[in-house]
Each structure stands twice: as structure tokens, then as C-alpha cells.
Amino acid sequence: xxxxxxVTKLLSEVVDPSRVxxxxxxxxxxxxxxxxxxxxxxxxxxxxxxxxxxxxxIRIANDEDVPVYVRGGGTSHWDAxxxxxxxxxxxMSKMNKIMEINERDLVATVxxxxxxxxxxxxxxxxxxxxxxxxxxxxxxxxxGSIMKAGxxxxxxxxxxxxxxQDVVTLEMVLPNGDVVQTGSAAWPSAGKxxxxxxxxxxxxxxxxxxxxxxxxxxxxxxxxxTTDIQERLMATMPTLDSVIEFGHFINRHVGxxxxxxxxxxxxxxxxxxxxxxxxxxGYEEExxxxxxxxxxxxxKELGGELGDRAPADDYFGHILTGLxxxxxxxxxxxFGAGTLRIDDIKFMYDVWKTELIEKRGYTKAGFGGQILPRxxxxxxxxxxxxxxxxxxxxxxxxxxxxIILDGPVVPYGIGGRDGLRDIVASRDTGYYRLxxxxxxxxxxxxxxxxxxxxxxxxxx
Amino acid sequence: xxxxxYKDMIYACGRCNYCKGIDFNDxxxxxxxxxxxxxxxxxxxxxARGILEGQLEYTEELAERIFGCFMCARCQxxxxxxxxxxxxxITKAMRADFVDKDIKIPEGGEQMAExxxxxxxIFADTPSIHNHWSEGLEFTEGSGTLFFxxxxxxxxxxxxxxxxVQVLQAAGYTLDFLGDDxxxxxxxxxxxxxxxxxxxxxxxxxxxxxARGVKEIITPCPSCFRAFDEEYPELLGLDKFPITVxxxxxxxxxxxxxxxxKFTVPINKKVxxxxxxxxxxxxxxxxxxxxxxxxxxxxEFVEMTRNRENAFCCGGGGAxxxxxxxxxxxxxxxxxxxxxxxxxxxxxxxxxxxxxxLTHGTYAANIEARVLDVAELMAVAAGLVDKxxxxxxxxxxx
Lengths: 460, 398
Hints:
CATH class of the largest domain in chain B: Alpha Beta
Shape of chain B: globular
Helix content of chain B: 40-55%
Oligomer: heterodimer
Structural class of chain B: alpha/beta
Shape of chain A: globular
Radius of gyration of chain B: 21 Å
Number of helices of chain B: 19
CATH topology of the largest domain in chain B: Rossmann fold
Helix content of chain A: 25-40%
CATH architecture of the domain at 231-411 in chain A: 3-Layer(aba) Sandwich
Radius of gyration of chain A: 22 Å
Strand order of the largest sheet of chain A: 15-12-14-13-17-18-16-19
CATH superfamily of the domain at 231-411 in chain A: FAD-linked oxidase, cap domain/gating helix
Number of domains of chain B: 3
Strand order of the largest sheet of chain B: 5-4-6-7
CATH class of the domain at 231-411 in chain A: Alpha Beta
């Protein structure tokens, strides 16, 4: 049991009291994320402004055995940042500054809650960009994306998951309060320019860990010149096999450079219609046109048809500012999501079509995916009504998750008890055991993100 | 509870956080002042849901989050993209629930409503003081076109209001004015949740206006404009208010378009414009002021970075000024920073509440700059008033 008043008093000694709250109406907005995960209330919410304040909070958490949870934009799809038990919720909103844009080294350093939209707006003033992949809208944060190794429909064809190759350095506060730097920043006299140096790549330990091993307080990422040439394509492919061959074409024959976005969408009302939206990459008109012609030729060769590019323009054009009509037919649930080999997309499609639509009669979920560099991130997504459809949908979706993950699919996002952590724990892989060992070593009291990724009982 | 009628909308919040925006507090003036997620539209929907489900109760402590909303509709503008939640309607319903449940509302709001009920205006002015702005002007009772200045324009901006009427009359409008019979439009009542009292107020006012033969109301105040045009029909269960209501933005634009005045005196100033929330985001009225500036000689118009539907609130909305004055001034100061960045000479707007709050913002930012109504620039350009009113050190006879 958390001694609410005592912890409030202690927190108010390390953070200005105006940024500490234990009021029920201040807590409840932090009890849900974008997913259908059940409501989970923290006992406190604190808005830190510095790493030193976070260190102070961590110290209190360890002393009082109160878990600490971390919240960025609050748009997780899988219960990864909700308080699995009463504890201190860090609202990172105020740690959102752009610390440096290093135009010479093409590195930007930001605080974790800087949004992609804010960073992009600033970078473009310098003729630079990052090419964020996620489609989470204006509130989506850099730190949130990288700590979950996020991904999405844009630039992933070129660069992969966030953290794949674009993170240069991290600054993390560990569960014992130590502050560590990764990459070249680990050598204080050197600077921020390289991810892999000075021994093992410890950044990789934190990326995708959903905050269980440390709290990110600063990070630097690779940036690149903008390309103002916008060339997009819409195509309808005749079969999933033709989509697969198109994916191989991009990845094998002409290289990952061709596209900065490719998005497959199959609507449940027309499960045999495979729509592709593409955003062609290139710095020069001539190159973009060449790539466009090659892509068009391949679409045609595979029996596809090209359509009006306007939907692709609308989609890729609003990734950072917010896609429209998201919740017109209900709130969202992404499920059946994961990464897989290009050829294996047929497995997921079959699950979607036979298990979801035909056997369960659920016809509201679409099927989509992005051909990442040499692999897919695929998913099913539906709109549903709360509260009436909530319970049944969650149960059904979890059943689909189990089927998917029994196949050739690696889960994307693990989360808490309403996420996929039970499925991951049940596999008891060597990887999982190593992760538990790391967690126990770095966080012996299981303070950080308790119950996220690894069930609490697994760490006893 | 009144929020029950909005249950579907409350449950439609997909928690996408579009409302909060890209820079934590660059959109919502409430989170700019209160920092908590509970200050955002997403947070408010979570609170409303908590109340509907019995997890939370309306309490005096909660009041700051609900009555601290500036009702600027910036969040609602973003939500148009996502879930189309009427955040303002839900906020009004929550405020009304406070009153229905007899939960104490912020003292400044209570006082404002009581003052309105007892004196007929928000400043407790006597009629002669309240009408002082109209000295030297002639009105025509029964003309059918009522000039309705509203409380702020009457009390705080006597000179501006006088100048506005000069412009209208010079353009040929034959205006009626209620004189000693003029009382507040009633906005202080529904904005503080006192819906039942507001219904009676609206009903009585409509009778009075119809008895005087009013066919059209012209008002410079966006709150009064919306009061008659939107709130009264809702309160009285009418499809449409039986009297035409026009905001001065539309009327002044018409004067320019129809060339009712000749603008010959050059302004010779760099001018920016603040979009009032209640005509901008609420009613999509963005263009009139900009078109007027195009017609005025010597106006170099420059936009602030946050403009039109993205405009940041002046801090004067939602009656926050009366309930949490510090919050209001903090927001005004922030908005004045946008003005400073333009390097404009003049800040203009077309709303008395915005003019008041932005003027306070100049004090808070410690700058000398005038906040003018668009009509004042028209009056100068038309030669109706001296150019000195444009000067930073001019002190109006308010």
C-alpha cells in the first residue's frame, strides 16, 4: 500500500509542489492510453523538469517501495505505460526541449517528450528533417517512439524501427538513480556523433524495453537533409502474392532507398483488394522520376493498377499533424500486430480472413502493414464502441494475438497485463530470461515500470 | 446530470491527444496555466467519464479544472479531425452540473453572476455610468436596428465604442440603443453554469426586444453575438432566434465592400490581428478584418504565427478572467509575445474582451503598445477621428 500523503510530501521536497498531485481528478486522465487496456490508476502524478528531479523521485520510490511509471504522449497501443499498480506516474510533458541541432554532424539532441512534429518543424527551418515513421499524430513523442522501438507507415521502408539505426546517443536514469550515457556520449570529451563505439551497444538494451531498465532524459538522433520532392503513388494489386513480389522488388532488386513509405491496406468489406500507398524517396527530380517509373512498371508487370494519388498525399501529408476521422466509428484497437518475413504476410492475412472475418464473423477490422527494410510490420485495426463492445472485443483480439504469435510473427509492443506480456512470459525463451536477469540486476526492487513487459511474479 | 446527454461523445474520445498538440502547451491555454493532463480536452473527457461511472464526484477542488477552461475551442478545432467531440458543450454542462448539485463554484464567477442579476451588468454600473460612452451620439428609437455594445464595451471602452458607432452612423446605419434599459446579454449566467436563471433572462430579454420593434442587433462583442444568436435559441427551445444578429466584423466588412466610407488618411503602421475565439473558431469568421485592412491605406498587415483557427486565446475566455485572474493574465502575456515577434506597431482585434485582456497582456509584458479595435483603424482612415489614437502613448478617454 502506498502511503499517499507521505509520498506526496516527499515528492514535493524534490519537485515543486505545483507539479505534484495525488488528486483523483488529476490521476484519472493518466489511467488509460490509446488501447482498450483497462483503467489503471496511479497514486501520484509528477511532472519533472530535470534529470535531477527524476533522480530524486527514483530515490524516493526505492526508499518507499513505490513503483514509477513513465508517460510521454499517452498514446501507447498496448498498455505499456499505465500504472499496473498504484505508483508514481511521471508525466514527462515538460521535458520536451530541443537541446541542439548540429547541422555539421547531422545530429539533433532533444529531451524525450519533444514531439516529432515539433522537432520536424524546427529541423525544416534548417533544411533538415528526421523522416519520422510513426503516424500517431501531433502529440507523439521522440522518446516514446524510441523507448518502445516504434514504427509506422512512413520512412520505415528506408530506415526501419525507431532505434534501428537512427539513435546516436541516449541519456538514461537507471533504477538506482545513476545517470548513464550511451554511444559516443559515453566518452564525455568526445561528443554525440556515433551509436556503436566503446564496447557493447548499450543503447540497444534500452530501445524497445518500454522503460523497464531506465528513464530516458535526453537522446540524440540522426537527421538528414529534407527532400521537397513529393511523389506518391496509389496502386491496387490483384493478389497478396503480387504484393509480396512487389515487396521483394523494393528490398532486393532496387534497394531500400526507393521508398520512404509504403503502406498496404485491405479493407474488411473487400478482403481481396490490396491497396498500396507509396511515398517515393529521392533528393533530385531526375532520381525520383526514375524510381517512379520503375515502380509503376513493376506494379503493372505484377498485374496491379495505378489510381489517383490523392489518398496517399492526404495520408502521408498528415502523419505528423494528425490523420482525419480516426474515431468517427468508435475508438481504436490495434491487435494481431508484429514483424515477420516478407513471404510470411500470407500467414497473417489468412488469420485475419479466416479466423477473424469468417470464423468469428468480425467484419470491422482492417488488415494493414508496412514493408520495412526486408520485413513486414503488419497489424489488424478496428474501431469499436466503449463500453458496450469493449469486453468482447478485447477477448477476441487477444485470441487472435495468440494465434498470430504461435506463427512466424514477433510481437510488436509487449505492455502490461492487458498487453502481450503473458504470451511472452509463457515462451520462457533464453532472451526473456536474460531480460529478467538484467531487470533484476539493474532494478532489484522492481521500481521502474513494475508489471510492464515482465509480470511482477516473474521477478520475485 | 447534464453531461449524460453527451455520453456518446465522452466515450468517443480515442485519447489520441490531438487536443494537446505538438508542444505541450502551445494550443491549450488551460494546460498553459494549469499544467495537468486534467486540463486538456482528453483529460476532461476522462474526468467526465469518471463522473458518469461514479468514480469521481464534482467537488469544489475540481472546479479549477472545469472553470479554469478558457472555452477557446482550440482543442475542439483539433478534435474535428479525430472524434468531433463538442468539448465546449460538455464543459458548459459540467459547469451547470456544479450549480445543479450546489457545489461551490469559484468565487469570482459567483460574484459576476450575482452582480449581473442584481445590477444588470457585470460591473454593477448605474445606467448613467453604463451609458456614458454614448455621449454626443444620437440614436433613433424604433429604427429596428439595435446597437448592442455589451458590458465590456460600455464600461471599459467608452471611447472605442463611441468611435465604432461613429463609423456605423457615418456609413449610413440608423441605430437604436436601449439606453437605460440596456442590460447584460446574460452570458455570465450560462458560462458559470446558472442555466435556469439564464433561461428566464433570455425569455425576458426577447420580450423586451420584440416590444421595441428590434429587427436586427449589431454588436461588437462576440459573446453577446453568440448569446442572442446561439444561446438564446438553445435556452428557449427555439430553432432560430427571431431577430437577426450581426457581429460588427460582418457589418464593417460590408461597409468596406459597399464603399460606404472613403478611406483617405494613411495609417502608416504595421498591423497584426488577433482572431477572437468566439467568432473565429466558433463561427468561422476569420476574413472580415483581413479584408478591411486591405482597404485601409498605409496598413502593412502581418500575421502572428498562431492565427485564424490556430490562434492562441487572449486569456479572456470562459470567464476565467473573473475566476482565475492570474491564469488569464499569464495567457494574455503569452499572446502578446506572439505580437512582439511580428514586430508590428499595432495589435488589433474585434472583441472587447480580447481588447481588454490583450491590453493587460501588454502591461504584463511591460511593453508600450496599443490594442485597437478594427473599427478604430477604419475611423482614422475615414478621417472620423484623429490619428493620435494610433500612438503608443495615447491614453483613451475610457
